[in-house]
Amino acid sequence: MPAILAVTAPFFALVLAGWLAARHGLLPVSAIPGLNAYVLYFALPCMLLRFGMGAPVLELLNPYLLAVYLLCGLTVVAFTVAISLNSRVTLKDASFGALVAAFPNTGFMGIPLLAALLGPAAAGPAMCSILADLFVISSLCIALSQLRAPQGGQEHGARRAALRALQGAMANPLPWAIALGAALSAAGLRLGGPVETIVQMLADSASPVALFSIGAVLWRAGLNTQQRTRVADYLPVALIKLLLHPLLVLVVGSAARQLGAPLSAFQLMVLTMVAALPSASNASLLAERFGADSGRVARIIMSSTVLAFGSFSALAWCFGVKPGG
To answer: Is residue 324 domain-resident?
Structure first.
């Protein structure tokens, strides 16, 4: 466990540092979108490009991994919506709660953390899960959130929201970086010269800046909270993210292996640990954009991020992870 904590503690400490910097004004709120844009459009795509170039194409688009992960993600979405709906939590808010229950912070936190714990080979299954989350889970949850939208009818509102979500996913540079890395890997091509140096410099900055950005985004999301949210309306969703989601992936993945699916123990471990990551921090921005209770979403993300330091580290210990081993 000490060796695992030696890896996980600095990652979560950088998140805390970003939160404190934003809280005390060292990082102005107006600068947070710029910091986030640097990570999303420059540093993180370069990191994913490098990992994608080193991973086999079938590892990035593994149909068995995608099937297991999507089945579990869709189950988590359905379960979270079902238990969340009440007089205080509408379908729109329950749908965005389901989004953060099923959408881990794989890009900004997961891939660098898993690579540090398990080695570069962990990046392939993790990037595979990013594609499922961006194109299926997020689109579904956003469409669900608009089912009771008054303007234009329910069906029209949901279809329009799903199309907006898909357009957003297509505009996201992360899938394109993964695709370019896969294409270069399949063609046996490598970057060289100044281009390789620039990509490496940007990629090396991705992890610390992304973690710092997570903390700042969480602080900004907390500023937009207009009303008090009961603990019972957000803590159970955070626990679904950290406990139920990874347990479901482990059980379904193990059953798939027993039925003959060509999944290795390592791939299943990586996918389970991806599911055990805290909720994606940028989901609070989506909640704002679509008019959901961003305060509740922010509390779910914050709770899952704080609690994940213990739960994720414990899961790594249960798997017998030995960093650097």
So the answer is: no
CA distances from 90 to 75, 78, 305 (A): 19, 14, 24
pTM above 0.85, yes or no: yes
Say which DSSP state 86 is in: S
Q: How confident is the model at residue 272 (pLDDT cuts 50, 70, 90)?
A: very high
Gap between the Cα atoms of 300 and 101, Å rounded: 8
Domain membership of residue 284 as a residue range: 2-318
CATH code of residue 61: 1.20.1530.20
For residue 240, is pLDDT > 90? yes
Residue 254 domain flag: yes
- Among residues 71, 101, 159, 14, the alpha carbon closest in space to that of 283 is found at 101
Q: In total, how many domains does the chain have?
A: 1
Per-residue pLDDT of 16-44, as tens digits, reads 999 999 999 999 989 988 998 999 899 98
Whole-angstrom Cα distance, residue 244 to residue 102?
10
* Residue 323 is assigned to a structural domain of this protein: no
